[in-house]
Each structure stands twice: as C-alpha cells, then as structure tokens.
Amino acid sequence: MLALVLVMGVVAVWCVAAAFTSPQQIEAASTPPDRRPVTAEIGRGSLQDTRNVSGSVRYAEETKAVVSPIRDADRSVVTSVSASDGTQVTSGALVLSVNDCPVFFLDSPFPMYRDMGPEDMGSDVKALQENLVAVGLLGEADGVFGAQTQLAVQKLFERANAVVPQRSIAQTPEEKLNGVDNLSSSASTSATFQTGRATSLETFFPMSSAITAASNRVVVRSVPEVGTIIDGTSSVSFASSNVVVEAPLFSDVSPALVDGATVEVTSADGEKFSGVARVRYPGVSDDPHAAESVGGSQSAATSASQDSPVIVVVADGEHTLDDTRVGQAAVIRLVVQTLASDALLVPRVAVAEGESGLGTVLLQVEDGSFEVTRVRILAALGGQVAIESLDREVAVGDKVGIE
C-alpha cells in the first residue's frame, strides 16, 4: 500500500508540473522569432530557351545485300555462317558458305553481276581487284583479270580453307585461232579431255562468292541461318559502323534548329556529350559513308517514321558513340533561342521590374544590410533573369534579398 501511494504521488506531481506554465514561457511564446532575410546568390551563365526531344541510339544506316545462288547447282543451301550480329567486316572477310563455297564480303558500290575469269575486263573486275589489294593479296587494280589476279583469288580461297574454283576451257585449234572460247563455268577441279580438243583449267571468281556493300567498315546485323535455301531473295543485313542519335523533328522545334548546330545529348545511363545535329529528310541518307542502294537492295531505314523529317545527331570530334548503346533511349537538348550569354543570373523574385527594361535588386553588403541597386534586365525566362548592374559592381557569389 505504501508503494502504491508513493507511485500515485509521483504521477500527481508530474501532471501538475506539466500543466504549469511559467511567466517566462508565456512571454517567449508570445514573442515572434527574429526575421532572417531570405537571400539568393548571383550566378553567371547563359539564359537559353531549350527543348528536350526524346530519341534513340541507332546505326546511321542499314542496308541489305542479296546472296546469289550457286550457278548450275540443283539447290543452294547455307552450310555455315561465319559472321554474327555485331560482327564488323572488311574486305575479304568470310560471311557465310553456300554449298560449302565461301561467300566473301567485298567493298563495292554495286553487286557482282557475272563470274570473272582470265582476260575479263570491267568495273566489276577492278572492284574485285581493289578488295584483293586491300587484303594484301594483289599489288594493283588495273581492271584486267590477269595472271596476278588469278593467283590472288587462289590465295583468297586457300586462306578460307576452301576449294579454289576452277573452270575448264576447251578449244579446237580453229576456235583458238578465231578467238572463240567454249567455256564451262562449273567449279571443276579436274581437267576434261575431249577428242580433238585441248582442255585446260583456269582459276576464276564466281559471282556467288561475293556479297557487297558500299563501305569498308560495316557491321553485320543479320545472316541467313544454316539450312536456308538461297533462292535469290535471301539477304545479309549490314549497318554502317557509324552510330547516331535519332529523334523526330517536331514543328515547334523545326524553325529554330539550325543544321549543323551543336547540341547536348544525355544517354539512358545519364552520360552527357555534345554532338552535331543534322536534319534528315525522307529518302536522304544521314551517313556520308553509306550509299542509298547496296548489293542491289534499297537502304532499310530503322526510323519508325520514314515520311517525316528527323533530327540525327552525330558525335563531335571529342566524343564517340559506340555500338553498345544501340537501341538505348537518349534525350537531345536543343537550344531554341539564346536570350543572354555569359550574364549575371538571379531569381526572378529578386528583381523589382520597372519600365524600359530597368529594375532594382536588394544587394546585401558587408555588414549584412541591403542596398537598393539599379540593374538593367537583359532577358527573363522561367524563374531566372539575366541582369547588368548600373549603380555598383556586382559579382558572382554576391547575395540579393528575396521579398
């Protein structure tokens, strides 16, 4: 009972103390706290009207090149694939095999259109030779398929561990005298002897062993799978190695965007870099290294909107875009208009605007007090104002009062 009485006494004393308010507490509660001035620092920068446009990272240009079937074969089938999605190929690279015959990538603005052999001449022969020169198998390209070109073609196939294609040439003495050849374009590996006719073999380059694109640095995007029957419609998709950021060109941005302007791009992971903006219109390539038609097929644009102009941003000389970002989202920051450059910037609420572009600010001085300072208002945008001091020197870091 004694313990219970003691506990109840303590509780009662605590309640009385909590309810009691001293005169000092009453006075403190009735006195408002000291009012401290609200200030903001003066900054420096450019006042720009900007737009953010959502886009995506992609290869600058994608093209398709048709795979040719093997001549005189009962069926042409893909038997192996050497290049996969993302593989960068150059002259002489092995892309796939059809009926175990290699198909090489050749840098050419047009597809091969015939089998090429000794004494053949033309643009296709020169294109083949230029690729053989690029891989170090031939000394020069003169447009004539001679003995050195035969040797270079032989080395190209041997390097791919493939059978060197050969065809038979059968001539009677009269045909040889009259310059008439009886050619067989099959890839024969043994001589054929015919009564009264001298038969020999020559190395040639089959049309079906080439797949072309108009750039020496392209990336493979898709290849027919092993087992695909080549019927003249199967193709290999290539993309130029250049990577760009593409976004739709909206009407509110179009009048202000200058072709070749420097813009800022922010990638999906937050990295920022500057680039050069180009305006691409339907049917016009944005890749200066890519042709509009490659391998006999039209360019395949990856943009969802091929009928409307788009903004294409290429990295400037100090930055690069690698293909690991292809498919990622990106934001292009466009400067629609620069209202003030390298100016003093203050919050709009810190300026009392007057007439004729003039105004005043409350500039905090050394003793903490404020002086009314006249300023010229250069421009205003959103919550910021660009100013120029008229009464005294105002520097970055100075503070102005906010009413």
Describe this structure in words.
It is a single chain. It contains five helices and 25 strands. β15 (262-267) and β16 (272-280) form a beta hairpin. It has helices at residues 2-19, 23-30, 123-134, 147-159, 173-178, and strands at residues 39-41, 43-59, 62-66, 78-81, 88-89, 94-98, 101-107, 166-171, 182-183, 198-203, 210-213, 218-222, 235-240, 243-248, 262-267, 272-280, 293-294, 297-298, 310-315, 329-347, 352-353, 358-364, 370-381, 384-389, 399-401. It is 14% helix and 38% strand. The longest helix is centred in the N-terminal third of the chain and has 18 residues, at 2-19. The protein has 403 residues and is mainly β. The strands form six sheets. A six-stranded antiparallel barrel has the order 2-14-19-16-15-20. It has a four-stranded antiparallel sheet with strand order 3-13-12-5, with no helix packed on it. It has a four-stranded mixed sheet with strand order 4-6-7-11, with helices on one face. Mean pLDDT is 80; it is low at 179-197 and 286-306.
